Protein backbone atom coordinates (compact mmCIF):
# COMPACT_ATOMS: atom_id res chain seq x y z
CA UNK A 1 0.00 0.00 0.00
CA UNK A 2 2.69 2.50 1.03
CA UNK A 3 4.86 1.38 -1.87
CA UNK A 4 2.06 2.00 -4.36
CA UNK A 5 1.45 5.46 -2.93
CA UNK A 6 5.15 6.22 -3.18
CA UNK A 7 5.23 5.04 -6.83
CA UNK A 8 2.20 7.19 -7.61
CA UNK A 9 3.78 10.27 -6.03
CA UNK A 10 7.06 9.54 -7.77
CA UNK A 11 5.24 9.24 -11.09
CA UNK A 12 3.45 12.56 -10.48
CA UNK A 13 6.73 14.29 -9.60
CA UNK A 14 8.51 12.87 -12.64
CA UNK A 15 5.73 13.88 -15.00
CA UNK A 16 5.65 17.33 -13.44
CA UNK A 17 9.37 17.83 -14.04
CA UNK A 18 9.16 16.42 -17.56
CA UNK A 19 6.24 18.75 -18.27
CA UNK A 20 8.23 21.69 -16.91
CA UNK A 21 11.09 20.70 -19.21
CA UNK A 22 8.73 20.83 -22.23
CA UNK A 23 7.55 24.24 -21.03
CA UNK A 24 11.05 25.67 -20.74
CA UNK A 25 12.02 24.25 -24.13
CA UNK A 26 9.37 26.29 -25.88
CA UNK A 27 9.18 29.25 -23.48
CA UNK A 28 11.81 31.50 -25.00
CA UNK A 29 10.53 31.05 -28.52
CA UNK A 30 7.02 31.74 -27.35
CA UNK A 31 7.58 34.91 -25.34
CA UNK A 32 9.81 36.19 -28.15
CA UNK A 33 6.78 36.61 -30.44
CA UNK A 34 4.81 39.00 -28.17
CA UNK A 35 8.05 40.87 -27.34
CA UNK A 36 8.84 41.38 -31.05
CA UNK A 37 5.31 42.37 -32.03
CA UNK A 38 4.71 44.47 -28.93
CA UNK A 39 7.90 46.43 -29.61
CA UNK A 40 7.03 46.89 -33.29
CA UNK A 41 3.56 48.20 -32.38
CA UNK A 42 4.84 50.44 -29.54
CA UNK A 43 2.96 48.65 -26.75
CA UNK A 44 3.38 50.07 -23.25
CA UNK A 45 4.98 48.01 -20.45
CA UNK A 46 1.52 47.22 -19.05
CA UNK A 47 0.28 46.08 -22.44
CA UNK A 48 3.38 43.95 -22.95
CA UNK A 49 2.93 42.25 -19.58
CA UNK A 50 -0.68 41.43 -20.42
CA UNK A 51 0.18 40.23 -23.94
CA UNK A 52 2.89 37.86 -22.69
CA UNK A 53 0.66 36.47 -19.94
CA UNK A 54 -2.38 35.84 -22.11
CA UNK A 55 -0.15 34.34 -24.81
CA UNK A 56 1.28 31.86 -22.30
CA UNK A 57 -2.27 31.02 -21.19
CA UNK A 58 -3.40 30.42 -24.78
CA UNK A 59 -0.36 28.19 -25.42
CA UNK A 60 -1.66 25.89 -22.71
CA UNK A 61 -5.18 25.91 -24.15
CA UNK A 62 -3.88 25.25 -27.68
CA UNK A 63 -1.70 22.38 -26.43
CA UNK A 64 -4.68 20.76 -24.68
CA UNK A 65 -6.68 21.02 -27.90
CA UNK A 66 -3.93 19.14 -29.74
CA UNK A 67 -3.01 16.36 -27.30
CA UNK A 68 -6.58 15.51 -26.21
CA UNK A 69 -8.28 13.28 -28.78
CA UNK A 70 -11.90 14.17 -29.56
CA UNK A 71 -14.17 13.22 -32.50
CA UNK A 72 -13.13 16.45 -34.25
CA UNK A 73 -9.77 17.60 -32.84
CA UNK A 74 -6.47 16.46 -31.35
CA UNK A 75 -3.73 14.45 -33.04
CA UNK A 76 -2.94 12.87 -29.66
CA UNK A 77 0.86 13.07 -29.98
CA UNK A 78 3.19 14.57 -27.30
CA UNK A 79 3.38 18.00 -28.90
CA UNK A 80 3.38 21.50 -27.40
CA UNK A 81 1.85 24.42 -29.31
CA UNK A 82 3.12 27.97 -29.24
CA UNK A 83 3.13 31.22 -31.19
CA UNK A 84 4.33 30.52 -34.71
CA UNK A 85 7.34 32.58 -35.85
CA UNK A 86 6.16 32.38 -39.49
CA UNK A 87 3.44 34.90 -38.64
CA UNK A 88 5.72 37.55 -37.12
CA UNK A 89 6.58 39.52 -40.27
CA UNK A 90 3.05 39.41 -41.75
CA UNK A 91 1.53 40.51 -38.42
CA UNK A 92 4.05 43.34 -38.03
CA UNK A 93 3.27 44.60 -41.54
CA UNK A 94 -0.50 44.41 -41.02
CA UNK A 95 -0.35 46.05 -37.59
CA UNK A 96 1.87 48.91 -38.76
CA UNK A 97 0.07 49.62 -42.04
CA UNK A 98 -3.57 48.89 -41.21
CA UNK A 99 -3.83 48.73 -37.41
CA UNK A 100 -4.01 45.95 -34.81
CA UNK A 101 -7.72 45.34 -35.43
CA UNK A 102 -6.91 44.10 -38.94
CA UNK A 103 -4.08 42.03 -37.49
CA UNK A 104 -6.51 40.10 -35.30
CA UNK A 105 -9.01 39.84 -38.14
CA UNK A 106 -6.29 38.22 -40.24
CA UNK A 107 -5.52 35.75 -37.44
CA UNK A 108 -9.18 34.70 -37.18
CA UNK A 109 -9.40 34.38 -40.99
CA UNK A 110 -6.29 32.19 -40.99
CA UNK A 111 -7.78 29.98 -38.27
CA UNK A 112 -11.03 29.56 -40.19
CA UNK A 113 -9.05 28.77 -43.35
CA UNK A 114 -6.97 26.08 -41.60
CA UNK A 115 -10.14 24.57 -40.12
CA UNK A 116 -11.94 24.51 -43.49
CA UNK A 117 -9.09 22.94 -45.46
CA UNK A 118 -7.99 20.50 -42.74
CA UNK A 119 -9.75 17.56 -44.39
CA UNK A 120 -8.47 18.37 -47.88
CA UNK A 121 -4.91 18.98 -46.63
CA UNK A 122 -4.91 15.67 -44.75
CA UNK A 123 -5.52 13.87 -48.07
CA UNK A 124 -2.17 15.16 -49.33
CA UNK A 125 -0.46 12.53 -47.15
CA UNK A 126 0.83 10.75 -50.25
CA UNK A 127 2.87 13.85 -51.11
CA UNK A 128 4.84 13.44 -47.87
CA UNK A 129 6.82 10.19 -48.30
CA UNK A 130 9.95 9.64 -46.15
CA UNK A 131 12.22 11.51 -48.57
CA UNK A 132 10.05 14.63 -48.22
CA UNK A 133 9.35 14.42 -44.48
CA UNK A 134 12.95 13.48 -43.69
CA UNK A 135 14.26 16.45 -45.68
CA UNK A 136 11.69 18.72 -44.02
CA UNK A 137 12.56 17.61 -40.49
CA UNK A 138 16.27 18.03 -41.24
CA UNK A 139 15.53 21.56 -42.47
CA UNK A 140 13.38 22.40 -39.44
CA UNK A 141 16.29 21.58 -37.16
CA UNK A 142 19.13 23.06 -39.15
CA UNK A 143 17.40 26.31 -40.19
CA UNK A 144 16.84 27.02 -36.49
CA UNK A 145 20.50 26.54 -35.53
CA UNK A 146 21.28 30.22 -36.39
CA UNK A 147 18.51 31.24 -33.96
CA UNK A 148 20.23 29.21 -31.24
CA UNK A 149 23.57 30.91 -31.93
CA UNK A 150 21.94 34.33 -31.99
CA UNK A 151 20.50 33.62 -28.54
CA UNK A 152 23.85 32.34 -27.27
CA UNK A 153 25.31 35.71 -28.29
CA UNK A 154 22.67 37.59 -26.31
CA UNK A 155 19.66 37.60 -28.63
CA UNK A 156 20.22 40.81 -30.60
CA UNK A 157 22.91 40.54 -33.26
CA UNK A 158 22.81 44.31 -33.83
CA UNK A 159 23.59 45.13 -30.19
CA UNK A 160 27.06 46.39 -29.29
CA UNK A 161 27.47 43.76 -26.59
CA UNK A 162 26.43 40.87 -28.84
CA UNK A 163 28.77 37.94 -28.24
CA UNK A 164 29.76 39.17 -24.79
CA UNK A 165 32.10 36.60 -23.19
CA UNK A 166 29.67 36.18 -20.28
CA UNK A 167 26.87 35.23 -22.68
CA UNK A 168 29.13 32.85 -24.57
CA UNK A 169 30.23 31.20 -21.32
CA UNK A 170 26.64 30.76 -20.14
CA UNK A 171 25.38 29.55 -23.52
CA UNK A 172 28.08 27.06 -24.40
CA UNK A 173 28.39 26.04 -20.74
CA UNK A 174 24.69 25.12 -20.72
CA UNK A 175 25.09 23.14 -23.95
CA UNK A 176 28.16 21.33 -22.58
CA UNK A 177 26.35 20.37 -19.37
CA UNK A 178 23.43 18.93 -21.36
CA UNK A 179 25.88 16.92 -23.49
CA UNK A 180 27.71 15.59 -20.42
CA UNK A 181 24.44 14.52 -18.76
CA UNK A 182 23.32 12.74 -21.95
CA UNK A 183 26.63 10.87 -22.17
CA UNK A 184 27.12 9.90 -18.54
CA UNK A 185 23.72 10.49 -16.98
CA UNK A 186 21.41 7.60 -16.16
CA UNK A 187 17.67 7.13 -15.76
CA UNK A 188 15.57 10.12 -14.84
CA UNK A 189 18.57 12.47 -14.60
CA UNK A 190 19.27 11.85 -18.29
CA UNK A 191 15.61 12.35 -19.17
CA UNK A 192 15.57 15.88 -17.72
CA UNK A 193 18.98 16.94 -19.07
CA UNK A 194 17.54 20.02 -20.80
CA UNK A 195 15.81 21.14 -17.61
CA UNK A 196 18.97 20.64 -15.53
CA UNK A 197 21.03 22.58 -18.08
CA UNK A 198 18.64 25.55 -18.13
CA UNK A 199 18.29 25.68 -14.34
CA UNK A 200 22.07 25.36 -13.81
CA UNK A 201 22.74 28.06 -16.40
CA UNK A 202 20.25 30.41 -14.74
CA UNK A 203 21.80 29.83 -11.30
CA UNK A 204 25.22 30.56 -12.79
CA UNK A 205 23.88 33.81 -14.27
CA UNK A 206 22.50 34.85 -10.88
CA UNK A 207 25.85 34.10 -9.25
CA UNK A 208 27.57 36.21 -11.91
CA UNK A 209 25.20 39.11 -11.20
CA UNK A 210 23.84 39.38 -14.74
CA UNK A 211 20.14 39.21 -13.86
CA UNK A 212 17.64 41.78 -12.59
CA UNK A 213 14.28 41.09 -10.95
CA UNK A 214 12.34 44.28 -11.77
CA UNK A 215 9.97 42.45 -14.16
CA UNK A 216 8.86 40.11 -11.35
CA UNK A 217 8.30 42.99 -8.92
CA UNK A 218 6.14 44.93 -11.41
CA UNK A 219 3.97 42.00 -12.54
CA UNK A 220 0.45 41.38 -11.16
CA UNK A 221 -0.42 38.36 -9.05
CA UNK A 222 -3.55 37.40 -10.98
CA UNK A 223 -5.07 38.32 -14.33
CA UNK A 224 -7.83 36.72 -16.43
CA UNK A 225 -7.63 36.77 -20.24
CA UNK A 226 -10.19 39.11 -21.80
CA UNK A 227 -11.66 38.81 -25.31
CA UNK A 228 -10.85 41.76 -27.61
CA UNK A 229 -8.61 43.34 -24.96
CA UNK A 230 -6.68 45.46 -27.48
CA UNK A 231 -9.14 45.70 -30.36
CA UNK A 232 -12.14 44.10 -32.04
CA UNK A 233 -11.17 42.23 -35.21
CA UNK A 234 -11.40 44.02 -38.55
CA UNK A 235 -11.01 42.45 -41.97
CA UNK A 236 -9.17 43.54 -45.12
CA UNK A 237 -8.50 41.33 -48.13
CA UNK A 238 -4.73 41.78 -48.61
CA UNK A 239 -4.08 41.24 -44.89
CA UNK A 240 -6.13 38.05 -45.03
CA UNK A 241 -4.26 36.76 -48.11
CA UNK A 242 -0.87 37.25 -46.44
CA UNK A 243 -2.08 35.43 -43.33
CA UNK A 244 -3.45 32.54 -45.40
CA UNK A 245 -0.06 32.10 -47.09
CA UNK A 246 1.65 32.11 -43.70
CA UNK A 247 -0.85 29.55 -42.40
CA UNK A 248 -0.02 27.18 -45.27
CA UNK A 249 3.64 27.45 -44.27
CA UNK A 250 2.78 26.49 -40.70
CA UNK A 251 0.65 23.56 -41.85
CA UNK A 252 3.57 22.19 -43.85
CA UNK A 253 5.93 22.58 -40.87
CA UNK A 254 3.36 20.97 -38.56
CA UNK A 255 3.09 18.04 -40.96
CA UNK A 256 6.82 17.49 -40.64
CA UNK A 257 6.62 17.65 -36.83
CA UNK A 258 3.69 15.20 -36.80
CA UNK A 259 5.66 12.69 -38.83
CA UNK A 260 8.79 13.15 -36.73
CA UNK A 261 6.81 12.40 -33.56
CA UNK A 262 5.10 9.52 -35.36
CA UNK A 263 8.53 8.07 -36.11
CA UNK A 264 9.76 8.51 -32.53
CA UNK A 265 6.60 7.18 -30.86
CA UNK A 266 6.15 4.35 -33.41
CA UNK A 267 2.58 5.40 -34.16
CA UNK A 268 1.29 5.30 -37.73
CA UNK A 269 -0.66 8.40 -38.77
CA UNK A 270 -3.70 8.28 -41.04
CA UNK A 271 -5.70 11.03 -42.76
CA UNK A 272 -8.06 11.37 -39.80
CA UNK A 273 -5.12 11.97 -37.44
CA UNK A 274 -3.73 14.70 -39.68
CA UNK A 275 -7.16 16.30 -40.10
CA UNK A 276 -7.60 16.42 -36.31
CA UNK A 277 -4.15 17.95 -35.92
CA UNK A 278 -4.79 20.71 -38.45
CA UNK A 279 -8.29 21.37 -37.06
CA UNK A 280 -6.85 21.87 -33.58
CA UNK A 281 -4.40 24.47 -34.86
CA UNK A 282 -7.22 26.21 -36.76
CA UNK A 283 -9.37 26.46 -33.64
CA UNK A 284 -6.35 27.63 -31.61
CA UNK A 285 -5.75 30.42 -34.15
CA UNK A 286 -9.39 31.52 -33.99
CA UNK A 287 -9.17 31.69 -30.20
CA UNK A 288 -5.90 33.63 -30.57
CA UNK A 289 -7.68 36.25 -32.65
CA UNK A 290 -10.58 36.49 -30.20
CA UNK A 291 -8.26 36.90 -27.20
CA UNK A 292 -5.95 39.22 -29.15
CA UNK A 293 -2.90 36.98 -29.11
CA UNK A 294 -1.49 34.94 -32.02
CA UNK A 295 -1.98 31.87 -34.21
CA UNK A 296 -0.57 28.69 -32.65
CA UNK A 297 1.38 25.87 -34.20
CA UNK A 298 3.50 22.88 -33.18
CA UNK A 299 6.92 23.62 -31.65
CA UNK A 300 9.66 21.55 -33.24
CA UNK A 301 12.00 21.81 -30.23
CA UNK A 302 9.66 19.55 -28.29
CA UNK A 303 10.42 16.79 -30.78
CA UNK A 304 13.96 16.90 -29.40
CA UNK A 305 12.67 16.69 -25.83
CA UNK A 306 10.72 13.52 -26.66
CA UNK A 307 13.75 12.03 -28.39
CA UNK A 308 16.30 12.98 -25.71
CA UNK A 309 14.15 12.07 -22.70
CA UNK A 310 12.88 8.80 -24.18
CA UNK A 311 9.44 9.59 -22.68
CA UNK A 312 6.97 9.13 -25.52
CA UNK A 313 3.69 9.45 -23.62
CA UNK A 314 1.33 12.42 -23.52
CA UNK A 315 1.15 12.71 -19.73
CA UNK A 316 4.12 15.09 -19.31
CA UNK A 317 2.66 17.32 -22.03
CA UNK A 318 -0.63 17.52 -20.12
CA UNK A 319 1.38 18.78 -17.13
CA UNK A 320 3.11 21.27 -19.42
CA UNK A 321 -0.24 22.54 -20.76
CA UNK A 322 -1.70 23.05 -17.28
CA UNK A 323 1.51 24.75 -16.12
CA UNK A 324 1.27 27.15 -19.08
CA UNK A 325 -2.34 27.97 -18.19
CA UNK A 326 -1.35 28.54 -14.56
CA UNK A 327 1.58 30.78 -15.48
CA UNK A 328 -0.69 32.74 -17.79
CA UNK A 329 -3.12 33.41 -14.93
CA UNK A 330 -0.37 34.49 -12.54
CA UNK A 331 1.83 37.01 -14.39
CA UNK A 332 4.16 37.43 -11.40
CA UNK A 333 5.01 33.72 -11.44
CA UNK A 334 5.27 33.74 -15.21
CA UNK A 335 7.64 36.70 -15.05
CA UNK A 336 10.12 34.53 -13.13
CA UNK A 337 10.55 32.36 -16.21
CA UNK A 338 11.34 35.45 -18.29
CA UNK A 339 14.45 35.89 -16.13
CA UNK A 340 16.12 32.90 -17.77
CA UNK A 341 19.03 34.43 -19.73
CA UNK A 342 18.68 34.34 -23.50
CA UNK A 343 22.17 32.86 -23.79
CA UNK A 344 21.25 29.95 -21.51
CA UNK A 345 18.17 29.19 -23.59
CA UNK A 346 20.34 29.46 -26.71
CA UNK A 347 22.67 26.79 -25.38
CA UNK A 348 19.73 24.46 -24.79
CA UNK A 349 18.33 25.30 -28.23
CA UNK A 350 21.63 24.36 -29.86
CA UNK A 351 21.27 20.80 -28.59
CA UNK A 352 17.51 20.62 -29.22
CA UNK A 353 17.55 21.95 -32.78
CA UNK A 354 20.58 19.84 -33.61
CA UNK A 355 18.67 16.80 -32.33
CA UNK A 356 15.68 17.68 -34.54
CA UNK A 357 17.98 17.89 -37.56
CA UNK A 358 19.59 14.59 -36.62
CA UNK A 359 16.14 13.00 -36.34
CA UNK A 360 15.50 14.07 -39.93
CA UNK A 361 18.79 12.50 -41.04
CA UNK A 362 17.78 9.34 -39.17
CA UNK A 363 14.55 9.24 -41.20
CA UNK A 364 16.51 9.77 -44.41
CA UNK A 365 18.81 6.82 -43.68
CA UNK A 366 15.79 4.56 -44.28
CA UNK A 367 15.25 6.00 -47.77
CA UNK A 368 16.66 4.31 -50.88
CA UNK A 369 19.22 6.77 -52.23
CA UNK A 370 20.04 4.81 -55.40
CA UNK A 371 17.68 6.85 -57.59
CA UNK A 372 16.83 10.54 -57.60
CA UNK A 373 16.15 10.75 -53.87
CA UNK A 374 19.68 11.95 -53.18
CA UNK A 375 19.11 14.86 -55.59
CA UNK A 376 15.76 15.71 -53.96
CA UNK A 377 17.38 15.81 -50.53
CA UNK A 378 20.40 17.84 -51.72
CA UNK A 379 18.44 20.51 -53.60
CA UNK A 380 15.61 20.94 -51.07
CA UNK A 381 17.91 21.18 -48.04
CA UNK A 382 20.41 23.34 -49.95
CA UNK A 383 17.77 25.87 -51.05
CA UNK A 384 16.11 25.90 -47.63
CA UNK A 385 19.35 26.59 -45.81
CA UNK A 386 20.47 29.07 -48.47
CA UNK A 387 17.56 31.49 -48.15
CA UNK A 388 17.72 31.14 -44.37
CA UNK A 389 21.33 32.30 -44.03
CA UNK A 390 21.09 34.91 -46.85
CA UNK A 391 17.60 36.44 -46.52
CA UNK A 392 18.68 39.70 -48.22
CA UNK A 393 19.38 37.82 -51.47
CA UNK A 394 15.79 38.41 -52.59
CA UNK A 395 15.35 41.99 -51.33
CA UNK A 396 14.50 43.31 -54.84
CA UNK A 397 11.37 41.15 -54.99
CA UNK A 398 7.93 42.42 -53.85
CA UNK A 399 7.46 42.23 -50.08
CA UNK A 400 4.72 39.57 -50.36
CA UNK A 401 7.04 37.29 -52.33
CA UNK A 402 9.88 37.97 -49.88
CA UNK A 403 7.65 36.88 -47.01
CA UNK A 404 7.17 33.53 -48.73
CA UNK A 405 10.57 32.94 -50.34
CA UNK A 406 12.68 34.09 -47.38
CA UNK A 407 11.25 31.21 -45.35
CA UNK A 408 13.63 28.27 -45.70
CA UNK A 409 10.98 25.77 -44.66
CA UNK A 410 8.59 26.93 -47.38
CA UNK A 411 11.26 26.91 -50.09
CA UNK A 412 12.77 23.59 -48.99
CA UNK A 413 9.50 21.74 -48.41
CA UNK A 414 7.88 22.86 -51.68
CA UNK A 415 11.08 21.97 -53.54
CA UNK A 416 11.09 18.49 -52.00
CA UNK A 417 7.38 17.96 -52.74
CA UNK A 418 7.57 19.14 -56.37
CA UNK A 419 10.80 17.28 -57.15
CA UNK A 420 9.41 14.10 -55.62
CA UNK A 421 6.25 14.37 -57.74
CA UNK A 422 8.32 14.89 -60.90
CA UNK A 423 11.11 12.39 -60.23
CA UNK A 424 9.22 9.73 -58.24
CA UNK A 425 5.69 9.79 -59.70
CA UNK A 426 4.95 6.22 -58.63
CA UNK A 427 7.40 5.73 -55.79
CA UNK A 428 6.58 6.16 -52.09
CA UNK A 429 10.22 6.44 -51.09
Helix content: over 70%
Oligomerization category of the chains in this entry? single chain
Strand order of the largest sheet: 1-2
The main sheet comes to:
2 strands, antiparallel
Categorize the overall geometry. globular
What does the radius of gyration come to?
21 Å
- Structural class by helix and strand composition: mainly alpha
- Round the mean pLDDT to the nearest integer and report it: 81
Terminal-residue CA separation? 52 Å
Strand content: under 5%
Strands, count: 2
Low-confidence spans: pLDDT under 50, at least 5 residues?
A: 1-9
H/E topology pattern: HHEHHHHHHHHHEHHHHHHH
Number of helices: 18
Question: Can you walk me through this structure?
Answer:
This protein is an all-alpha fold and 429 residues long. Helix content is 71%, strand content 1%. Helix 4 (100-122) packs across helix 10 (237-265), helix 5 packs antiparallel against helix 18 and helix 12 (301-309) packs across helix 15. The protein is globular and about 60 Å long.
In short, what is this structure?
71% of the residues lie in helices and 1% in strands. The protein is mainly α and 429 residues long.
Amino acid sequence: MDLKMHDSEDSFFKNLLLGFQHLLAMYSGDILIPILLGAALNFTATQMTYLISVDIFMCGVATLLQIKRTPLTGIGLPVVLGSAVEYVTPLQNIGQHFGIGYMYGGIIAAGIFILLISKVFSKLKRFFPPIVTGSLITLIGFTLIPVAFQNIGGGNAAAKNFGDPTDLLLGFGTALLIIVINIWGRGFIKQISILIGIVAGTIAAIAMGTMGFASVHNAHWFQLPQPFYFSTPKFEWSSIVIMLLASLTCMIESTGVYYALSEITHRELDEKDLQHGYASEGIAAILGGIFNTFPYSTFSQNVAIVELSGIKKNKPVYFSAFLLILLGLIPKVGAIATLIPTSVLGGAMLIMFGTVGAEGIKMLTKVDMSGDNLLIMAVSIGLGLGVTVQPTLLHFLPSTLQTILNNGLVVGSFTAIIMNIVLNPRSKN
